[in-house]
Design a protein that fits this description.
two-stranded antiparallel ribbon; alpha+beta; single chain
């Protein structure tokens, strides 16, 4: 299954006293590291039994904005900035949502063009720090790569006017903010959830 990355950008969304950092430059999608990282996370949304299918509500503001992007009235960096600032506003209302990076990528797959939106929550890792008179272990935040089970992510089908959604999320304090507040969509149980209901 060929998966081609067309555009990608990464924004830092802080939900503490620090300001968020919105990137003005796209990621270097020709970099092998960048390509491998994006492909690994996007593939988690393709044919995954825990992913839900969803459709935008008629009144979804995001659906309207993405329709403008789909028809060529908005550019990738513009729509990516709009998505990130929208999530930042939601995070400000919910202090329990941790700081994260938001990866937005346009990808092509055999079934068509997609917009991937991934909220990547940090993982603490130990790093060996050495200096002239310094030799210690320190903890730093890192992006998830091999795990990332707590991701909030979606794949939006740009190949269709309805823009079908593949969705991965979990509730935070009993609120499904990613689907209900950010996307404004209705989802159906995943294949795994359907099996558990039987």
């Amino acid at each position: 299954m060929a998966l081609t990355i067309r555009n990608a950008i990464l924004h830092i969304l802080n939900n503490d006293s620090r300001p968020s950092v919105y990137s003005e430059a796209e990621l270097d999608i020709d970099s092998e590291i960048c390509e491998a990282f994006i492909q690994k996370h996007v593939r988690k949304l393709l044919n995954n039994p825990v992913v839900r299918t969803a459709v935008f509500k008629a009144e979804s503001e995001l659906y309207s904005l993405l329709g403008e992007y789909q028809s060529g009235l908005r550019y990738f960096k513009d729509i990516a900035f709009t998505l990130a600032t929208r999530m930042g506003e939601i995070m400000n209302r919910f202090p329990s949502i941790p700081s994260c990076d938001m990866l937005i990528a346009r990808v092509s797959h055999k079934s068509g063009e997609y917009l991937a939106v991934l909220q990547l929550q940090y993982q603490e890792v130990y790093v060996h720090k050495m200096g002239n008179a310094d030799n210690q272990l320190v903890i730093q935040n890192a992006l998830p790569y091999t795990t990332g089970k707590g991701e909030f992510a979606c794949l939006i089908g740009l190949y269709d006017a309805a823009m079908p959604i593949s969705l991965l999320e979990k509730a935070v304090n009993e609120v499904l903010y990613f689907s209900e507040l950010f996307l404004e969509c209705d989802s159906t149980p995943s294949k795994k959830e359907q099996v558990q209901l039987k």
